Amino acid sequence: QVQLQESGPGLVKPSQTLSLTCTVSGGSITTNYYYWSWIRQPPGKGLEWIGYIDYSGSTYYSPSLKSRTSISRDTAKNQFTLQLSSVTPEDTAVYYCARETMTDEYDYWGQGTQVTVSS
User: Fold this and answer.
1) CA distances from 6 to 21, 48, 74 (A)
2) Cα separations (Å) of 9 from 20, 21, 28, 92, 106?
3) Which of 2, 73, 87, 107 has the fewest beta carbons closer than 10 A?
4) What is the pLDDT of residues 71-112, one digit of tens each?
5) Is residue 45 classed exposed, middle or buried when 0-12, 13-18 and 19+ CB atoms within 10 A define those classes?
């Protein structure tokens, strides 16, 4: 059973960088052919895909967030990390990490973590 767990600060000041880590257990982030994604849900809105890092370490980001987003990984710790720079209150959301399969399905999710951007 694969499990994902998000961790990181719950409060970030405007203009700072949001940094979250997803720790994966029960499966390796280097296993073919999975995509390790970050997704968020602002209050009162739908899910928004941020980007992913795949089994080979390649990354792909949402065009609307690409200029502020970086996703990296630590294979020794079986973790992947989201960094979102220059945050504003509009970046306030519940942030999820999830595993996507080759058939574009999200089969495992973390429980989500609330991040609030406020001074």
Assistant:
1) 6, 17, 14
2) 7, 10, 25, 12, 25
3) 107
4) 999 999 999 999 999 999 999 999 999 999 999 999 999 999
5) exposed
Rounded CA Rg of the chain: 13
A 10 A CB-CB count for 37 gives 23
